[in-house]
Amino acid sequence: MSTSGVTVLGGGVIGLSVAWFAARDGFAVEVVDPGSPHGGSWVAGGMLAPITEAWPGDEDVLALGVESLARWPAFAADLGVALSLVGTLAVATDVADGEVLDQLRAHLESQGRSATRLTRRELRAAEPGLGPSVRSGLSVPGDLSVDNRDLLRALRAACARHGVRFATESTQDHEITVIAAGAWSRDLHPLLREVIRPVKGEILRLSARPGALPPPRHTVRAQVSSRPVYLVPRAGGLVLGATQYEAGFDPDVTVGGVRDLLRDAEVVWPAIAEYALTECAAGFRAGSPDNLPVVDWLEPGVLAATGHHRNGLLLAPVTARRVLDLLREGGTR
Amino acid sequence: MSTSGVTVLGGGVIGLSVAWFAARDGFAVEVVDPGSPHGGSWVAGGMLAPITEAWPGDEDVLALGVESLARWPAFAADLGVALSLVGTLAVATDVADGEVLDQLRAHLESQGRSATRLTRRELRAAEPGLGPSVRSGLSVPGDLSVDNRDLLRALRAACARHGVRFATESTQDHEITVIAAGAWSRDLHPLLREVIRPVKGEILRLSARPGALPPPRHTVRAQVSSRPVYLVPRAGGLVLGATQYEAGFDPDVTVGGVRDLLRDAEVVWPAIAEYALTECAAGFRAGSPDNLPVVDWLEPGVLAATGHHRNGLLLAPVTARRVLDLLREGGTR
């Protein structure tokens, strides 16, 4: 058993997963996080959806996502967090958006995966609250979802059980540093500055009020007037997401973003008009040039685990596993 | 000088104004307020607008409002709070809404007040950022506006300077109680239960971001698709209001309310799409059957000062003056 020390910069889902795995393996671990309300793991929908997110050209992203998804049931069970297994409906409201669904289905089939086209009637049998403008859909089995904030709490608790120390500034002089600070990683090493960029996203949290139609059972992803929107059911409510801007570290929730999310989601699920709007938040994903994360040594003693873009939660198990392998190698160099 | 003690139930603009006037007059005063984020004074636009709000049948409301408005410059000066004197533009986007403006002008003229119809070109000269759908308008001189939260802070400071005590529960056994708890007053005396009701309103606070067109200089009131909306400029941003529901003490900000306010305000001032949405809030106005406040003795030793509906800020000076007169009489009975 190694007894080296590891400092993890970043207390989001990647940093905490890395810290948990490393501490469980015998490393002395400190997680350093100054705290931000704009971390990508906190401001997230919680979809674990490599399959519905699949897109031609991103086959490596799909393969990595599918590999990590397979690890999720055990990962969640170890943490004691619940996974939603109901799956995803991808829906469209006009012909052009319906063609996007056809492309997704064709692509999934080319990758050896199935997705079922649903008629208008089948869609409504699955989710009676869908709006009248929703006219085509695809049932995509396999995707999961998790309450991202429950997950973060469970990860912190698991870390604490294994002796991980938490600090807002580094207090230990450890041999190894893991940079897992999401979009902020770009400021922590010159090699990351060139490849990691913040990709802003806005999400809304809604709560179903008494008398209102409850949220859908499935995660619903939609194209509305070419804009993507997702509705993730969450304990009596919904998370709506997500806008996407390349505008640096601008933390504002914009009127235009909220307007689009509400408008598009209401087309998909009209009952939300009667829901309570409980939170509007903006966060930063860690974008990378090829949409794949950077998980590797940057120099002796300095590891990166960042660049997860829209897939930080999904890729946490596979990333933490890979970092642990690198740490074990690093310990013997 | 009287030295009687007065307990004021309610720390909103009415309760604080009453407390300030009474303490300044020599009464020993305690303000009791358990604290709520849904008070009508905190969740308010800050318009002091009896004239633009005038409506046939509500002549008494207009007269009282105009009387109080005349007291506002001195009231604000004593408190050291700034008043905006720029005035109000009432605008409309379609023919039916334009007819409402014609009715308002006719009514104001019948009351001996003037309002000027503006052409499309004149409107844009006054406020170049108005949306292309805004096609008629009325310039209404005389209305003021105030930052409602600055006002509350200034009132608390003025009260403190005059020895007013603040508590979340009553600590003094005073001879006189003033019920000034807004919509919650209905639960504080059986006579109020029949006449005071909560009228829920939602408002949004926006902040103009760098590069976006600044907010209008005027308060802009509009009818959009028959829904009223107002935009009150406020230190680099705007307050948008206000929805109106008769639904008891339901404190939720609803998706439908936010959607309507954003949609309607964006028609009036398209630049808000680039603004930051900094707050969504719901509050309760104290509705009364005739839209006039209840300012009178309910029984020996118990005074009411409530039922101000949409006009709590506007009517604070005249209400506090009237309560002080009643307290002085009460002290000699």
Written description of the protein model:
2 copies of one chain form a homodimer. With 333 residues, chain A is of the alpha/beta class. Chain A folds into 2 domains: 1-84 and 145-196 and 289-333, FAD/NAD(P)-binding domain (3-Layer(bba) Sandwich); 88-141 and 197-287, D-Amino Acid Oxidase, Chain A, domain 2 (2-Layer Sandwich), CATH 3.30.9. Helices cover 32% and strands 27% of the residues of chain A. Chain A has helices spanning 13-24, 59-79, 95-110, 120-126, 148-161, 190-193, 255-268, 316-332; strands spanning 5-9, 28-32, 47-48, 83-84, 88-92, 116-118, 136-140, 144-146, 165-167, 176-179, 197-207, 219-224, 227-234, 237-241, 276-287, 294-299, 302-306. In chain A, the strands form 3 sheets. The first copy, chain A, has an 8-stranded mixed β-sheet with strand order 6-7-5-12-13-14-11-15, with helices on both faces. In chain A, helix 2 crosses helix 8. Chain A is globular. The model of chain A has no long low-confidence stretch (mean pLDDT 93). Chains A and B meet through helix 7 and strand 15 of A and helix 7 and strand 15 of B.
